[in-house]
Fold this sequence. Notes:
With 531 residues, the protein is an alpha/beta fold. Helices cover 32% and strands 16% of the residues.
Amino acid sequence: MAKKVAVIGAGVSGLVSLKCCVDEGLEPTCFERTEDIGGLWRFKENVEEGRASIYQSVITNTSKEMSCFSDFPMPEDFPNFLHHSKLLEYFRIFARKFDLLKYIQFQTTVLSVKKHPDFSSSGQWEVVTECNSKKQSAVFDAVMVCSGHHILPHMPLGSFPGIERFKGQYFHSHQYKHPEGLEGKRILVIGLGNSASDIAVELSKKAAQVFVSTRHGSWVMGRISEGGYPWDMVFHTRFRSMLRNVLPQMIRKWMMEQQMNQWFNHENYGLEPQNKYLMKEPVLNDDLPSRILYGAIKVKPTVKELTETSAIFEDGTVEEKIDVIVFATGYTFSFPFLEDALVKVEDKMVSLYKYMFPPHLEKSTLACIGLIQPLGSIFPTVELQARWATRVFKGLCTLPSERTMMADIIQRNEKRIDLFGKSQSQTLQTNYIDYLDELAAEIGAKPDILSLLLKDPRLAVKLYFGPCNSYQYRLTGPGPWQGAKSAILTQKQRILKPLKTRAVKASRDFPVSFLLKILGLLAIVVAFVFS
């Protein structure tokens, strides 16, 4: 008899968890509190309590080839970075393709998830739900928590003396939808994450003036990288990941600074991070530097105090006649349906084994999917999490002892602080390829590059020096996909397809960049021989 699995939420994590359950022969039931799939990525004009919210202009920060599920490439005519409506279209195609909707109970809220009385032997959970004011209780063999972490806004008003006197309007970025109604205003945006930057840039096109207040600063990158390719196709390769791991810390951090300042000098724009050697997630924004360049946005330090109409900053400067304050200050973690002891977030540390499993459970039958912030696309990350979790539920993979898991949690947190810092916004931060490989190794899906080098050198080179996308984790292990190799070798044409909307005669000139690479390789060979 198939094990019954409760999946909480029908966003990205919930959909891919459903598919992984089906792939492993489990019997899933998904509870979604709203009337449709998509979670965070389904835009609604009005903010709904208990639901993630995005603004109308949101575009993905990771490209389609790095964001698709491992056995389901996005249509080649899709743009490389997607408007939220286009991404939601992909999720709908995905759900139809694998017939996932039949497992979802819409407009059903999960009220509680508690251990069954015989949990120590059965590992079962009692899940209480509510639909149309009617409560129901059911027993499940496992639970996958896929409700996300962009639901409860973090609004630290206590850190802004004078906010109670401020006569203007203020709200969290969670409530922002579009610039209408804010035309001609003088607006202060608190924060410098992706949402803060997007909102500041959009408002600056309609507002009289926009100010951005940042405590620590941030590196800013554009979506376009070397040769016009998406940034993550260039940044996230196994070769570059290896360099970042083996080079001495000072050299690695120096290289990071040089790379980030290639586009523009962050110091000149008031954006340079306070600790510029931390590997914090950079802001992805194509327009922020230009809006600063011609004065539509002004970067300010931390707000020291607010008056009825002005903001006083730590450097002593004052900006008068502030009409609106937008707090882009992130989110806090909340799982109201779980017992407090199950998922602990204390001292900016998540007590979950590999960001997934509570270490103290007698039976490993509950997993959090998507409670993480990788330095790359979240979609392949949650897919590998779900693939591992379902195999743990089936008993095909086992977790180590509680003591070993706790030691890993502590060590991982120390490494996270060393790499990314202690900021609340970095609580869930993790390296990208390293974490993907960790998960893939748990299920036997991590590609063996050395072995492939002997069997298929062309593919091995692509895997190591090319983009590390999700297809790599379908070459071997459980659930291999026959189209994985082809998808890896043909990804360039899917990148270029939506760009080549005008026929241009191909240049036959010998590329200078290629010549430089050849000369560079020859120089290395000569140096090696003579040494």
